Amino acid sequence: MTTALVTGANRGIGRHLALELLARGATVYAAARRPDTLDLPGAKAIALDITDPAAVAAAADLAGDVDLLVNNAGISTGATLLGDLDGVRAEMDVNFWGTLSMVRAFAPVLAANGGGAVVNVSSALSWFAYPGSGAYAVSKAANWNMSNALRLELAGQRTQVTSVHLGLADTDMTAGFDGDKLSPAVVATRVLDGVEAGDLEVVVDDWSAMVKASLAKDPREFYAQFLTA
Ligand SMILES: NC(=O)c1ccc[n+]([C@@H]2O[C@H](COP(=O)([O-])OP(=O)(O)OC[C@H]3O[C@@H](n4cnc5c(N)ncnc54)[C@H](OP(=O)(O)O)[C@@H]3O)[C@@H](O)[C@H]2O)c1
């Protein structure tokens, strides 16, 4: 009888996570910066920009019965680390600071509801970078290790923390990229299956698994594909 809150539920992976939660019988708070863009019959709409501390606090007050917090909201601007610093900060503001502020606000709510779970939608880019992904990759690496640290800090209240890693899914975020893309519906199913199974990491696809495995090797092997002469 889960009660979930999903950030960025108006489109992409977040919308499919909300749909799948509804299909599995959960009560769902669908959070979006513009609730008028939500298309989720049966969900409870919440206006929420995760970079707005007052809105985050209001969401935690309003959704006091939540036992599953799904931090899906994210941005990918293409900002590079040596380019415009405002772009780098924007990625960190949403993908790291916004996500952390949601966990900080909802930790007492989850504790009051038996511990529950936090899901942080990270990326395969937690574990590598490619040209043009600098700020996003750094923000998702921070998001990933935030999950590891929060898992320890929330263990005392029995809150499961699950980090999600995937390559390309077919959403607005990847509209400019070619290649095989996962259906966001499939992503949602794999994520929720993993959370239900108690997985601490959901590695959604083979690409993410390969990238993770590459960390145990000499980085020259992996980065050779990008560092062409
Ligand atoms: N698509 C992929 O290939 C892929 C791969 C790995 C990881 N991911 C991650 O998966 C998550 C969902 O991505 P997606 O592909 O579904 O992207 P998307 O289609 O671009 O959707 C992003 C969602 O995040 C919301 N959002 C952005 N900034 C926000 C903020 N400050 N406060 C609240 N909501 C905000 C957006 O709301 P608005 O509509 O208001 O902009 C939108 O609902 C992200 O964390 C992303 O990094 C995606």
TrEMBL record:
Please, which domain of life does this record's source organism belong to? Bacteria
Which SUPFAM superfamilies does UniProt cross-reference here? Answer: NAD(P)-binding Rossmann-fold domains
| Gene Ontology MF: a single term | oxidoreductase activity
Write down any Gene Ontology CC term. Answer: cytosol
Pfam families in the record, alphabetically?
A: adh_short
Q: What's in the keyword line of the UniProt record?
A: Oxidoreductase
Q: Which family is this sequence assigned to?
A: Belongs to the short-chain dehydrogenases/reductases (SDR) family.
Any idea what this protein is called?
Short-subunit dehydrogenase
Q: Which organism is it from?
A: Kineococcus rhizosphaerae
Lineage from the top down? Bacteria, Bacillati, Actinomycetota, Actinomycetes, Kineosporiales
